[in-house]
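Narrative progress, year one. The postdoctoral researcher (J.K.) led the effort to move from monomer predictions toward full complexes, under supervision of the PI. The following entry was the first complex the group processed end to end, covering 105 residues in total.
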Amino acid sequence: MDPRIERLEAVIKARKGADPSSSYVASLFAKGTAKIAQKVGEEATETIIAALHEGPEKLTSEAADLLFHLSILLADAGLSMDDVLSELERREGVSGIEEKASRKG
Ligand SMILES: N=c1c2ncn([C@@H]3O[C@H](COP(=O)(O)OP(=O)(O)OP(=O)(O)O)[C@@H](O)[C@H]3O)c2ncn1[C@@H]1O[C@H](COP(=O)(O)O)[C@@H](O)[C@H]1O
């Protein structure tokens, strides 16, 4: 795992139950899953707009906001980027077409 992701996830975990008035992450945890999910949606939309109209610098910034908020959403559910990477690893060597078929059951 990239150490930068590990450090971010450690900070996010440490903010669970912290004082919401002194921490943005703690304030999001306090507002609950629906608010965190809403932020992920907003940041995804801003990432799309940046990709289509605003250039690579803005896209990098918005993608960082998206990954940051996604990390909080995962932590809120007791999951981590490691879980997501394991899922991607599981898909390695499986074609996209096969993967789609396996999801349909
Ligand atoms: N990487 C980030 C990071 N990226 C973005 N943001 C904040 O995410 C917020 C979302 O941006 P918006 O423009 O949507 O903000 P907004 O309009 O105030 O949001 P809402 O009113 O909709 O909630 C802003 O307040 C940003 O400052 C971040 N806040 C914190 N971090 C990391 O998280 C760590 C812990 O932060 P605290 O919990 O605040 O100590 C920090 O040290 C950083 O490493």
